[in-house]
């Protein structure tokens, strides 16, 4: 089969011919139809410090996809060949305290598909059947292919009550703009998103935000108070840039008692004004991955109740043009990029 492999310990990703993997007794064999490129894949492509520490080479990477069940191990129940699936990319241990309590997203022994074990930039993927999510027929393939990052957005956005609240999202990357769309859909009042990249801010406008603010040239507090009439600050914050400056700005514009969820991954240590956190009595929650499998059910239901994510998918390529897709992601002038294995 064809696959995209991190073959060498240097910048790049390469198309290879490799063996179709064999499912174990509890695994599904999934024929991948469409892949989407994650920011994590871009880190692996660039071969940054995190990737060098984390990714064994050679390895097939990737973890955002939609596919069809093509085979399964002898112990698998509840799936049939031909079922359309996406999958949870965090493979959990099943025996730690949190796993046994059903809080799988808090597993301390998580292995990542396409990070610590072979991934889905391939014609076939082996995945524990437990991790597969059977897709309702009315979820289009393109949307199903981005369920993994959509799940990050949903997990973050649904961490706090948003109904009638004023929400700030820092970082209008694909996850930030999807979180903004979720916040609007579930009844937030003002959803303000910030970035320093005008392409991304335009994408956020197409996803229906109240106001997209370029913090390189505009004053966020002025926009919030003068333009939107929010005199006390934001009720809920979602940090989705990984930028320390963005997080600092968020803390400065939160109302007392505000709730902040942190998804963006900073590249190093970040300075926090702890006095502001304390005297504003903020609640801060770290977010990793998706809740298994509540987030997946919510994702399907949000799409089925009319949430439109289609503007976030900005580029489509056949798999042979994967390099173009990575170049678009590297340039920052894209939302989600979909690669089609059947082209
Ligand atoms: P992305 O890199 O595409 O988007 C981040 C955006 O933040 C960019 O558009 C960038 O221009 C913007 N930005 C930079 N500085 C800013 C500033 N000062 N103020 C406002 N915006 C600023 O990332 P993505 O794929 O949308 O993911 C969002 C973040 O979440 C990333 O940091 C990613 O590493 C992280 N992530 C975390 C998890 C998790 O489980 N915790 C999962 C996936 C991704
Ligand atoms: Zn565990």
Task: Supply the key terms.
343 residues, alpha/beta, Quinone Oxidoreductase, Chain A, domain 1, 7-stranded mixed beta sheet, 12 helices, 26% strand, binds nicotinamide-adenine-dinucleotide, binds zinc ion, L-threonine 3-dehydrogenase activity, L-Threonine_3-DHase, zinc ion binding, ADH-like_C, ER
Written description of the protein model:
- Catalyzes the NAD(+)-dependent oxidation of L-threonine to 2-amino-3-ketobutyrate.
- The record marks 148 as: Important for catalytic activity for the proton relay mechanism but does not participate directly in the coordination of zinc atom.
- With 343 residues, the chain is an alpha/beta fold.
- It has 2 domains: 2-151 and 290-340, Alpha-Beta Complex (Quinone Oxidoreductase, Chain A, domain 1), CATH 3.90.180.10; 160-286, NAD(P)-binding Rossmann-like Domain (Rossmann fold).
- The protein is 29% helix and 26% strand.
- The chain has helices spanning 39-46, 49-54, 97-100, 141-145, 147-157, 174-185, 198-206, 220-227, 244-253, 274-279, 294-304, 322-331, and strands at 2-6, 14-17, 27-36, 59-60, 64-72, 84-87, 90-91, 111-112, 124-128, 132-134, 167-170, 191-195, 211-214, 234-239, 254-262, 283-286, 313-318, 336-340.
- Strands 3, 5, 6, 9, 10, 17 and 18 form a 7-stranded mixed beta sheet that branches. The protein has a 6-stranded parallel beta sheet with strand order 13-12-11-14-15-16, sandwiched between helices.
- Helix 5 (147-157) packs across helix 11 (294-304).
- The mean pLDDT is 97.
- Nicotinamide-adenine-dinucleotide (NAD) is lined by residues 39, 152, 170-176, 194-197, 200, 215, 240-243, 245-246, 263-265, 287-289.
